[in-house]
């Protein structure tokens, strides 16, 4: 039984991925960029 999800695995379905900037000591994502795979749709 396979659960076929259309959720983009690259961004987890959010459509955006956190972009860590160099120099951020706390590792907090300062910005987000549109997922290059799903182009922000969050789906495959
Ligand atoms: Zn994606």
TrEMBL record:
Q: InterPro entries, per this entry?
A: HSP_DnaJ_Cys-rich_dom_sf
Q: Which domain of life is it from?
A: Bacteria
Q: What is this protein called?
A: Chaperone protein DnaJ
Source species, please?
Botrimarina hoheduenensis
The organism that produces this protein has a lineage beginning with: Bacteria, Pseudomonadati, Planctomycetota, Planctomycetia, Pirellulales
Query: Quick one: which gene encodes this?
Result: dnaJ_2
């Amino acid at each position: 039984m396979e659960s076929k999800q259309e959720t983009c695995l690259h961004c987890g379905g959010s459509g955006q991925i956190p972009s860590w900037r160099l120099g951020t000591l706390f590792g907090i994502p300062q910005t987000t960029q549109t997922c290059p795979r799903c182009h922000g749709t969050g789906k495959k």
